[in-house]
Amino acid sequence: MMGLMVSDETRTETRTGTRTGAGTGTSKSTPLGEPAAHGAQEPGNGPGAPGTRAWTTWTTRLLLLGIVLAALNLRPAITSLGALLEEVRDGLGMSGSVAGLLTSVPPLCFAVFGVTAPRLARRFGPGAVVCAGMAAITAGLLIRPYAGGTAGFLAATALALMGIAVSNVLMPVIVKRFFPDRVGPMTGLYSMALAFGTSIAAAATVPVTNALGGHWQPGLAVWAALAAAAVLPWIPFVRPRKAPSIASPAHDASGGADEAGAEPATARADRPTEQSAEQPPLRITRSRTAWALAVFFGLQATAAYITMGWMAQIFRDAGVSAGTAGLLLAVIMMMGVPLAFVIPRVATRLPHQGPIVLVLGVCGLAGYAGLYFAPAGGAWAWALLLGVSNCAFPLALTMVGMRARTGAGVAQLSAFAQSTGYLISIPGPLLVGVLYQHSGGWGLPIALMSALMVPQIVVGFLAGRDRTVEEEAAR
Q: Candidates 3.40.630.30, 1.20.1250.20, 3.40.50.620, 1.10.3720.10; correct CATH number of 60-235+278-474?
């Protein structure tokens, strides 16, 4: 699949002198190189030798591999814990309320640390930030099972989630910047990888734990190996910064003209960003679409983290075995593998994404209704329906890329929508744990999940309208 997204030729053109044209005569590189979709790239951006146009097919494939491996690691820290939540609760002596707090830690960390991602990318470069994020995930997953006590477990989990948070925010930015004419397919690719990693962790954690002796500690720690593998492809992109960040790219005064005087496509693609750099900063909070997208993101995240944290337990309490409950959770997540690739491609072809929001919402309501009335009898059907509903996440990411014109706008919108959205989602998993403990059943929690689906559909319709946050903020 990766081979289809890059050109068949390796573009390596030797530079023989300084840039000519109406400019300073100097050249600047952008982090990670230029967008692969345009072919011609700024010099010195890839891992090749200085003085060459080093953004090659190999470099593009390495970036694609890094994106896929990073996406694979954005959820196993959560779903592996959901599959073994009962064992972790018993091992650490957690109450239902404390377990609910544990399931609320992911959105809290995403909200707190995700907002720092654009600033970190400006200072260190997005490649360095994502690489550090993967290293933090590795360390957190390796430490948390053996940290000793609930406090240590929570602290190590927060470390892993910190790495996930910054990578969450930067993925849409990287796609918009380096694949500007392939936002739909590339969003689908990493969303598909994200869903695959989520489902594999949910399905395999219990069998792996049993194979490792039945202790939950190694069953959780084993996922650090996958995160460690994701560090490697990003290492070549960690280097001294020579240009403004991905969040606010700029080129030299010549406008990116090459020796022949022709303007590269990359310079033309970045022209709106150059212009926006001369304008006042985008006031994202003035955009109604930004707020609608943030609330939509928050409500779908609420459903997702309730699902990842509690769904296996719901099935287990209904009489389903632990292994089957893990498989049902994996089915919910696995539905995102094909649909996460299809939905963004369909969404980018529609002027209004509201109809997709409606379909996903109706599937969610049907799944919750079945879970309420016959949780064990129709478990596989409810898992399929809820899996379709959970694909609101790749849709939200796609709309982030579509609701802003420039790379800087996407960076701001991504940080705002995800940070605000994750703040909105924090109470959901915690409230489910409290309701479960005090009611002694899952009736009230499932009713809460169903009720939240209605406003999700409404704000999703609003966020799906064909407009940009720059236009709304300017008004």
A: 1.20.1250.20
Distances in whole angstroms, Cα of residue 119 to Cα of each of 13, 63, 162, 237, 244: 33, 21, 15, 18, 11
Q: Is 48 helix (H, G, I), strand (E, B) or coil?
A: coil
d(CA 309, CA 108): 14
Do residues 108 and 422 touch, judged by C-beta distance below 8 A?
yes
Give the single-character DSSP code of 18. Answer: -
Q: Where are the domains of the chain?
A: 60-235+278-474
Question: What is the predicted pLDDT for the residue at 55?
Answer: 52
pLDDT at 96: 67
Name the nearest CA neighbour of 300 among 464, 193, 454, 165: 454
375 phi and psi, to 5 degrees? -60, -35
CA proximity to 51, closest of 77, 12, 80: 12
Name the pTM for this structure. 0.67
- In the structure encoding, which two tokens stand for residue 74, read together? 């954005």
For 206-268, the DSSP string reads HHHHHHTTS-HHHHHHTTHHHHHHHHGGGGGG-----S--TTS----TT-S--TTSPPPHHHH
Instruction: Give yes or no for a contact between 201 and 75, defined as CB atoms under 8 angstroms apart.
Output: yes
Q: How far is 444 from 455, CA to CA, in rounded Å?
A: 18
Asked whether the predicted pLDDT for residue 126 surpasses 50, the reply is yes
pLDDT per residue as tens digits for the range 35-79 = 333 333 333 333 333 333 445 688 888 889 999 999 999 989 988
Using CA atoms in the order 125, 127, 131, 136, what is the torsion angle rounded to 10 degrees?
Answer: 40
Return d(Cα 37, Cα 122) in angstroms, integer.
23
Are residues 70 and 228 in contact, defined by beta-carbon separation less than 8 angstroms? no
Strand partners, 79: none
